[in-house]
Structure formats: structure tokens, C-alpha cells
């Protein structure tokens, strides 16, 4: 299992993104837990994130956090990125993660049309969306006016400032998976004909304005991440961008607005981004923007730590990961479910490689 040694050396290489030094290439993917009672992070969240930091994860991205806008939330017990009690809870989470020399970004989330009006904390407030749709042809909530769009953008900036004041090392804008920002990007949920809809350039104006407003609020030295995806919770096979040529102007625009690191959300990171090339979607993101990029999807899902070690299916995934990192196709790998199932996933992977070496030497 020579590849395990290679893997461990590739993923343990330190890396810097903007002005942050990360101890290794492993990122905890953002994962909603619905466990912040009444939307306030507490001891459970300190323990949850602290455990992953203790076991060596270089960068933690929090679950989606609610920005200070009445229609932003779509779930019970999802933590806020506003209010004194929520921010006080986040300060404790940040301190705990820093105690283990790991870094942490807050993911900023507005669910747009996915909200149901009965959802707390602002019970009764309807969803807001680009065109009054939660999914293609499925009406929900109200269409945003230009003034209301400005208010939502300001809420993103306020959330980012709150995260900065809590001591977070950066923020990640959740522009993926069919939530508000992605509803503007997606032709099927953006039927507007003003400056925020119609042609491709108009559809990514909202995303770019969110980045610009956040950059203005946090200054030049605070790290801004941007997560995007082709797939949507409303449709796993949706494709907003049909080719690298279509993707490039979007990514270049948000990059120039002030993004430091991209996070390309795919369900299997090793799959080609577009027909005609083996390059992954994370690889295209990095090639287009020349900025650091996080890949994600499908790492650590085999029974890697059972007797006998990783299966041949895991070997294929890990060999793709080594290749992606060594060939600079992407810089970091986010791990979701494997780290949710086992906070010690990363330290066990490192141990497995050491055991493997000892076995060979014996
Ligand atoms: C329980 C759960 C909650 C998730 N919540 C979020 C979220 O809040 N924000 C987000 O961008 N992605 C979310 N995701 C997607 C993950 O970040 C990740 O992209 C996905 O799980 C694929 O990675 P994996 O194969 O390593 O699990 C969630 C995934 C899971 C399993």
C-alpha cells in the first residue's frame, strides 16, 4: 500500500491561502447539524468543531450560518451569524479550534426560495427569491425588488463583519446547491429581465455584488472563500455552465470582486468537469481563476480503518487525490461525511500509514 504513504505526505504538506498558513490540505466540509438549540451555538458545537481540530484537520468550514436577514433561514436549530448570544457562542468555538492550531471559516447562508414561512426565528416571514420560485416551475415566496436585493447584500456584509469580529480566520460564501445566490445563477430559477437576470452576465451580478460588499466590510486582509456547484438540491444533474468557456467569465468576475479561495462542490471530486477533458471541476476553477481551490466529494467513504485497510475502491479515490494535489489541479481537499462519522478520521489515516510502514519493516 505504497500509495498510502504518498497520500499522507501529499495531504500533510502545509499550504498558504491568501495570508493564512494551513498545517495541511485537509478541510472539514461545511455540514448543517441542526443542533444549535434556538439557533445559538453552544457546548455541543464547541465540542463538535474542537474534536476535528484536535485530530489535525487544517481548516474547518462551519455549517451554513444564517445571515442577518429575516428570510435567510430554512431549517430548525441552524446557528445564526448575528445576535449577541450567537456571536458569543461562536467566539468559544473559534477559541477552541485555535487552541489546536487549526483555522476556521464561517459559512454564510441565505436559503432563498427553499425557506418555508413557518421557519423560526422569524416565523411568518416569506421566502425571497429572484423570481418567486423555489425550484424550476415551483412557486414559493416573493420576488425580490431592487431595494430588497440591496438589503440582502448588506446582510451578507454584516454577517461577514460579525464573523471577523468573532475571530474567524475567514468566511465562505455559500453560493452553491440551489440556495439564494445559486437561484440567481441558474436560468431555471432566475426569470428576471432587469440587471439581475436575462443574460449570463446579469445572472452573476448578484454573486459579484455580495463578494464586493463583503470585501468592503472586512478589508483587504480577511480571507473570503466562495463555494459554488453545478448540482442543486432541486436537481442533482443541473448544469448552469455547459463548457469551460461559459464558466470562465462567471468565475473571473467573482474572483476579481475579491475572492481568495474557491471551493468547487461536487459529489465525486475526481470526475471530469466537462466532456472532452479529464480535468476536474475544481481543476477548471483553479485554471480559470489562478486562485487556490478546494475540491470535495466522496473521500473516506470506504471502510478504510477496518482490518486489511482501504479497499480497491478507496485506492482509486486516494490515487486521484494524490494526482490532483501533486499536479496542482487543486490545493485542498474537503471531507464531509467521513469526518462527521469519525472526528479522528484524519489522525487515523496518518496512523494507518505509520502502521503500514512498521508492518513492512518488521
Ligand atoms: C449532513 C450534511 C450537511 C451538509 N450541510 C451543508 C452546508 O451547510 N453547506 C454546504 O455548503 N454543504 C453542505 N453539505 C455538503 C458537504 O459540504 C459536502 O459537499 C458533501 O457532503 C460531499 O462531501 P463528502 O462526500 O466528503 O461527504 C452537507 C452534507 C451533509 C452530509
UniProtKB/TrEMBL annotation:
This is NADH:flavin oxidoreductase/NADH oxidase N-terminal domain-containing protein. Pfam families: Oxidored_FMN. It comes from Pseudoalteromonas piscicida. Residues 13-353 form the NADH:flavin oxidoreductase/NADH oxidase N-terminal domain. It comes from the Bacteria. SUPFAM superfamilies: FMN-linked oxidoreductases. InterPro entries: Aldolase_TIM, OxRdtase_FMN_N, Oye-like.
Amino acid at each position: 500500500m505504497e500509495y498510502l504513504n504518498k497520500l499522507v505526505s501529499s495531504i500533510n504538506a502545509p499550504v498558504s491561502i491568501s495570508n493564512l498558513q494551513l498545517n495541511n490540505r485537509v478541510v472539514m466540509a461545511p455540514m448543517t447539524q441542526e443542533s444549535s438549540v434556538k439557533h445559538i451555538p453552544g457546548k455541543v458545537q464547541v465540542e463538535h468543531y474542537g474534536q476535528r481540530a484536535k485530530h489535525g484537520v487544517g481548516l474547518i468550514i462551519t455549517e451554513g450560518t444564517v445571515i442577518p436577514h429575516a428570510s435567510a433561514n430554512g431549517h430548525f436549530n441552524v446557528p445564526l451569524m448575528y445576535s449577541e448570544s450567537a456571536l458569543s457562542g461562536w467566539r468559544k468555538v473559534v477559541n477552541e479550534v485555535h487552541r489546536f492550531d487549526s483555522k476556521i471559516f464561517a459559512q454564510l447562508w441565505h436559503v432563498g426560495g427553499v425557506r418555508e414561512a413557518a421557519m423560526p426565528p422569524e416565523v411568518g416571514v416569506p421566502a425571497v427569491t429572484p423570481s418567486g420560485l423555489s425550484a424550476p416551475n415551483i412557486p414559493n415566496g416573493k420576488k425580490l425588488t431592487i431595494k430588497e436585493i440591496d438589503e440582502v447584500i448588506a446582510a451578507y456584509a454584516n454577517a461577514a463583519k460579525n464573523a471577523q469580529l468573532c475571530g474567524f480566520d475567514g468566511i465562505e460564501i455559500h453560493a452553491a446547491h440551489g440556495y439564494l445566490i445559486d437561484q440567481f445563477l441558474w436560468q431555471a430559477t432566475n426569470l428576471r429581465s432587469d440587471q439581475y437576470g436575462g443574460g449570463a452576465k446579469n445572472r452573476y451580478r448578484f454573486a459579484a455584488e455580495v463578494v464586493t460588499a463583503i470585501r468592503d466590510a472586512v478589508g483587504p486582509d480577511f480571507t473570503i472563500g466562495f463555494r459554488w456547484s453545478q448540482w442543486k438540491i432541486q436537481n442533482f444533474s443541473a448544469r448552469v455552465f455547459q463548457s469551460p468557456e461559459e464558466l470562465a467569465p462567471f468565475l473571473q468576475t467573482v474572483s476579481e470582486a475579491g475572492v481568495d479561495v474557491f471551493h468547487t462542490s461536487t459529489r465525486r471530486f475526481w470526475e471530469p468537469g466537462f466532456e472532452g477533458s479529464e480535468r476536474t471541476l475544481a481543476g477548471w476553477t483553479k485554471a480559470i481563476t489562478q486562485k487556490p481551490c478546494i475540491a470535495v466529494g466522496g473521500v473516506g467513504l470506504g471502510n478504510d480503518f477496518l482490518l486489511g485497510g482501504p479497499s480497491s475502491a478507496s485506492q482509486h479515490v486516494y490515487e486521484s487525490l494524490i494526482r490532483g494535489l501533486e499536479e496542482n489541479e487543486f490545493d485542498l481537499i474537503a471531507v464531509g461525511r467521513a469526518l462527521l462519522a469519525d472526528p479522528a478520521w484524519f489522525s487515523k489515516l496518518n496512523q494507518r500509514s505509520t502502521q503500514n510502514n512498521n508492518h513492512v519493516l518488521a
